[in-house]
Amino acid sequence: MNLQKDEVLVSSPWKKWGLYLACLGGILVSYAVLVTAKVESLALIAAFLVIYSLIYLLIAAFLSEKTHKIQPISSESTDQKHFLLTQIVSKISKQAGLEVEPKVGIYQSENMNAFAMGMSKKNSLIAFSSSLLQKMDDNSIEAVTAHEISHIANGDMVTMCLIHALINGLVLLVKIPLAVIKFFVLLIATDRAEFTFAWLIGIVSRIIQATVLFLGNLLAKAFSRKREYKADLGAAFLVNPESMIHALKVLSSDSSAIPQEQQNYAAFKINAPARLISIFSTHPPIEKRLSALQKYVQEDFDSEVNSQIDTHHDATQFVISEEKNNAENLIDALGVAQQELPLQNEEDDLERVQIPQIAASTDNIGVEDQLVLLRNLKELVDLGILTREEFEDKKKKILDCI
């Protein structure tokens, strides 16, 4: 399984924005069917959702930095560990084809984790927890960096922000109108029936909001799980599968929980606890991620071994073919040079039938030719055409004639 760059790192912006546009289109179609909204209303809804998404995207990175209290570091840092970290980010960013290197930051946490945030590939940040930097070796840190850079190159953090913005925007589209209706009903209510009606509006509003959030989060979590597999493969491509496998094994040994104030950003991190039912998890279980990478390593190894075997087989077949041709030419030459020697007894007669006799007449073959013939016979022994006993017997007969 030889991965290509375009298989793990997306270059087309339409692929990155495709899911967002599909969700936006789905919302507009649903409104058009369920509410029979006019084109003008749909345009207003679309404008509201897009503007809300962009605002959400603008503030998401800022809020994540404040929540995690990220301390930025630069390549000019005097701390050796920090300096090496910036060098790793710089090197892998170039491998991934990023035009602008992501900023690098560290936040204090006992939970081993890292995440990428930002509005675009040209304005992004990779944050590492202090625990991850303390407990992982350089190769594993490099793999984690490659994983996060894969997210940046693929625009995953942007797409995730936009999807969450759509979900929250849609909830607002349900909540605000129903809240306004409820307010006016309560404002003019004079009897118990009208107050009950206002109460029912509130109940319906909560049910619709919960349904939208539930279905929207299922979609977002499904995308999140898929992008984790893709980022793991991206790390395998940018660094090597073994380092990423080792990094995941180290992460699996971490028993500390993500702090409560950081839970809203769990979907953006490299490691998050899996739920009992996978569809409610933002990340696949690490065991499944390891299995996917190990399968890649095995397929890659099998492909390499098969290639080597095929190459060796072809080379061996060529050598065998050449040896057969040489042997056939040698036998033909021997056949031309053969002269029948006098038979001493019946055993010699049997030998003459089974194995061609070698010319030994000094009248027809000179001494040099007979020596060449001996060398040729030796080659036949090396090729396994003659046995050593047969060679010794023929050699004795030729030498007797010299």
SSE blueprint and pairings:
Blueprint: H1 5-8, H2 13-34, H3 39-68, E1 71-73, H4 80-96, E2 103-107, E3 114-120, E4 123-129, H5 130-135, H6 138-154, H7 156-188, H8 192-238, H9 241-252, H10 286-337, H11 346-354, H12 367-382, H13 388-401
Parallel strand pairs: 2-4
Antiparallel strand pairs: 1-2, 3-4
Helix pairs in contact: 2-3, 2-7, 3-7, 4-6, 6-8, 6-9, 7-8, 8-9, 9-10, 12-13
Structural overview:
- There is one protein chain.
- The protein has 13 helices and four strands.
- With 402 residues, the protein is mostly helical.
- The chain folds into two domains: 5-284, no CATH class; 322-401, no CATH class.
- The protein has a four-stranded mixed β-sheet, with helices on both faces.
- A hairpin with a 2-residue loop joins strand 3 and strand 4.
- Helix 6 (138-154) crosses helix 8, helix 7 runs antiparallel to helix 8 and helix 8 packs across helix 9.
- The longest helix is centred in the last third of the chain and has 52 residues, at 286-337.
- It is elongated and about 135 Å long.
- It starts with a helix and ends with a helix.
Number of strands: 4
Overall average pLDDT: 79
Strands of the largest sheet, in order across it? 1-2-4-3
Helix and strand element order = HHHEHEEEHHHHHHHHH
Q: Please, how many helices?
A: 13
Distance between the termini: 65 Å
Largest sheet: 4 strands, mixed
Helix content: 55-70%
Strand portion, in percent? 5-15%
Low-confidence stretches: 301-306, 337-363
- Number of discrete domains: 2
Task: Classify the secondary structure makeup into a structural class.
Answer: mainly alpha
Rg calculated over all Cα atoms: 39 Å
Q: Specify the overall morphology.
A: elongated
